[in-house]
Write a structure and sequence with these properties.
The protein has 463 residues and is α/β, with parallel strands linked by helices. It has three domains: 41-124 and 302-368, Rossmann fold (3-Layer(aba) Sandwich); 126-296, OB fold (Dihydrolipoamide Acetyltransferase, E2P), CATH 2.40.50.360; 374-453, Orthogonal Bundle (Helicase, Ruva Protein, domain 3). The protein has 14 helices and 15 strands. The chain has helices at residues 48-62, 81-92, 113-123, 179-187, 245-253, 261-268, 278-294, 314-325, 358-361, 374-387, 394-406, 409-425, 435-444, 448-456; strands spanning 70-74, 98-102, 125-149, 157-168, 171-177, 194-199, 205-211, 225-226, 234-244, 297-301, 303-307, 331-336, 340-341, 352-353, 364-368. The strands form three sheets. Strands 3, 4, 5, 6, 7, 8, 9 and 10 form an eight-stranded mixed sheet that branches. Strands 2-11-12-1-15 form a five-stranded parallel sheet, sandwiched between helices. Helix 5 packs across helix 7 and helix 11 (394-406) runs antiparallel to helix 12 (409-425). The chain is globular. The structure holds adenosine-5'-triphosphate and magnesium ion. Magnesium ion (MG) binds at residues 81-82, 307, 335. DNA helicase participates in several chromatin remodeling complexes, including the SWR1 and the INO80 complexes. Its EC number is 3.6.4.12. It is found in: Nucleus. This is RuvB-like helicase. It is an enzyme of class 3 (hydrolase).
Length: 463
C-alpha cells in the first residue's frame, strides 16, 4: 500500500505574538473625549500625555490623515513604549493587522534588508475581500461516498463521486460531487448535522458550525451552533475574508496544487522568501487596486511597529522615507530609548537624535514617554502581579516598588517571577511572596548597573 500523503495544514503567515510581557495591557484607556483615565483603565497606569497623544494618532488613522507620516515613541527604558504601540493597535480594531519587529530583525544573510522591511510593511496591510459567490449552503442530512472498482486494477476501491444532501429553511437539494470535494469535506471534518457551504465554481468547502437542531445533545460543548441557513440551498452569498498583502504575495509566489513531486517538495520545504519579487508585488498591487475600485475589497491599513529603531541603518531609513509616501502604507510606529547617537552606517556623520536621520525625523510625530513616579510604579507592579496570578504581601510590594524607583522598573518587574518560585518552594500558604523572598532574589540576581560596575572594577572578567 502506498504511504499516506501528508496533508499539509495551511497555516496563516501571521506571527506569534511576542509581547507576553504586556498581557495586562488591553488598550489606551481613554474616555470618549480622548482624556486618559488616571488609573488602571485598559491596564494602563500614568503616562497620561503619551496615551492621549496616541489616542489622537488613532483618530488620525481612522480619518485617513496619517499618510506620509509616522510616530516615534521616545523615552527611557521601561517607560511603556512597547506597551503603547500594542495599545494603539488594539484601539484600531480586532481585525487590524499588527506587525511588531525589532530594528535588528532585518539583517539576514539571505534576504536584502530593504526586502525584509518591505515584507513587514506588507504584513501590516490588510485587505478585506467581499465576494459574492455562488454557493450551496445548508445542513448536511446525507453524506455517502459512492465507491467504484479501482480503474487501475489494483485491490483498493476508489470513490467515484459523493452524494450529499443539504437542507435549508426553504428546501433540500441532493448534490452529486466530484471525489476531490470529498477530501475537502474530510479535512473540514464535516459530519451529518453540520452546516456547510460549498462554493459552486471552486468546490471549496467551509464548515460553518453545527446545526442548532442538535444543540441540546450535551450540556457542555465547545461547538458553535448555527441556525439552518435561510433561503434556498443554491444561492448567491457574500463572503468576507481578511488577508494581508503579504499573504497574497506568498500565495502567488509559490506554485500551488499539482500532483508532481516538485510541487510536493515545494510544499514541504519552507517557503523561500526570495521568491517574492518586486514585479510580483506590483502585479498584486494592481489587482488589489482594481478590486478596491470595483468595491470588492477594502484596504485595512494596520500597524507596523519597529522597536529599537536606532538599529536600522542609513539605507533602510531612506527606504522607510519612500515607503511612508506610498499609497499602500500602514501606520508606522517607531520606538527608541536612545538620545543622541550615531546613525548606523553613517558613523562619519554628526550625531543624530535617536539615531534617526533628520529628514526622516522631520516626518515623525514624536511622542515622549516619561519615567514613572513611585505611586505609578507601585500600581504597575500590582497590576502585573495580578495578571501573573501572584500573591504579594504588602511589605514585599513596598520593597519591590522601592527597587523600581532606585534601580529600574524593569528590574523590579523582573524579580516578581523568581520570587514567586521561591515562595512556592518554601511551601507557604497560597504561595504568598514575602519580603524575604524578594530580598533573597535581589541577592541572587544583579541589576544591570551593578553588574556593569563589577566588570569595570578590579574583579571584572577581562584584565
Ligand atoms: N503605564 C503603564 N501601565 C502599565 N504597565 C506598564 C506601563 N508602562 C510600562 N508598563 C509595563 O512595564 C514593562 C516595561 O514596559 P515596556 O516594555 O513597554 O517599556 P519600553 O519603553 O518599551 O522599554 P525599552 O526601551 O526597554 O524597550 C512592560 O511589562 C509594560 O507592559
Ligand atoms: Mg520596548
Amino acid at each position: 500500500m502506498a504511504a499516506p500523503v501528508p496533508i499539509a495544514e495551511v497555516k496563516g503567515t501571521a506571527r506569534e505574538n511576542r509581547t507576553a510581557a504586556h498581557s495586562h495591557i488591553k488598550g489606551l484607556g481613554l474616555t470618549s473625549d480622548g482624556r486618559a483615565v488616571p488609573s488602571g483603565a485598559g491596564g494602563f497606569i500614568g503616562q497620561a500625555a503619551a496615551r492621549e497623544a496616541c489616542g489622537l494618532v488613532v483618530d488620525l488613522v481612522k480619518a485617513k490623515k496619517m499618510s506620509g507620516r509616522a510616530v516615534l515613541l521616545a523615552g527611557g527604558p521601561a517607560t511603556g513604549k512597547t506597551a503603547l504601540a500594542l495599545a494603539v493597535s488594539q484601539e484600531l480594531g480586532t481585525k487590524v493587522p499588527f506587525c511588531p519587529i525589532v530594528g535588528s530583525e532585518i539583517y539576514s544573510a539571505e534576504v536584502k534588508k530593504t526586502e525584509a522591511l518591505m515584507e513587514n510593511f506588507r504584513r501590516a496591510i490588510g485587505l478585506r475581500v467581499k465576494e459574492t459567490k455562488e454557493v450551496y449552503e445548508g445542513e448536511v442530512t446525507e453524506l455517502t461516498p459512492e465507491e467504484a472498482e479501482n480503474p487501475l486494477g489494483g485491490y483498493g476501491r476508489t470513490i467515484s463521486h459523493l452524494l450529499i444532501t443539504l437542507k435549508s429553511a426553504k428546501g433540500t437539494k441532493k448534490l452529486r460531487l466530484d471525489p476531490s470535494i470529498y477530501e475537502a469535506i474530510q479535512k473540514e471534518r464535516v459530519r451529518l448535522g453540520d452546516v456547510v457551504y460549498i462554493e459552486a465554481n471552486t468546490g471549496a468547502v467551509k464548515r460553518v458550525g453545527r446545526s442548532d437542531a442538535y444543540a441540546t445533545e450535551f450540556d457542555l460543548e465547545a461547538e458553535e451552533y448555527v441556525p439552518i441557513p435561510k433561503g434556498d440551498v443554491h444561492k448567491k452569498k457574500e463572503i468576507v475574508q481578511d488577508v494581508t498583502l503579504h499573504d497574497l504575495d506568498v500565495a502567488n509566489a509559490r506554485p500551488q496544487g499539482g500532483q508532481d513531486i516538485m510541487s510536493m517538495m515545494g510544499q514541504l520545504m519552507k517557503p523561500k522568501k526570495t521568491e517574492i519579487t518586486e514585479k510580483l508585488r506590483l502585479e498584486i498591487n494592481k489587482v488589489v487596486s482594481k478590486y478596491i475600485d470595483q468595491g470588492i475589497a477594502d484596504l485595512v491599513p494596520g500597524v507596523l511597529f519597529i522597536d529599537e529603531v536606532h538599529m536600522l541603518d542609513l539605507e533602510t531609513f531612506t527606504f522607510l522615507n519612500r515607503a511612508l509616501e506610498s499609497s499602500l502604507s500602514p501606520l508606522v510606529i517607531l520606538a527608541s530609548n536612545r538620545g543622541l547617537t550615531h546613525i548606523r552606517g553613517g558613523e562619519s556623520l554628526p550625531l543624530a537624535a535617536h539615531g534617526i536621520p533628520p529628514d526622516l525625523l522631520a516626518r515623525l510625530l514624536i511622542v515622549p514617554t516619561h519615567p514613572y513616579q513611585q505611586v505609578e510604579i507601585s500600581k504597575i507592579i500590582g497590576a502585573r502581579a495580578k495578571t501573573e496570578g501572584l500573591n504579594v504581601d504588602s511589605a514585599a510590594l513596598d520593597y519591590v516598588t522601592e527597587l523600581g524607583v532606585k534601580v529600574s522598573l524593569r528590574y523590579a518587574l523582573q524579580l516578581l517571577a523568581p520570587a514567586s518560585v521561591l515562595a512556592k518552594v518554601s511551601g507557604r500558604e497560597g504561595g504568598k511572596i514575602t519580603l524575604d523572598d524578594v530580598k533573597e532574589c535581589e541577592g541572587l540576581f544583579l541589576d544591570a548597573k551593578t553588574s556593569a560596575q563589577n566588570m569595570g572594577t578590579a574583579n571584572g572578567f577581562i584584565a
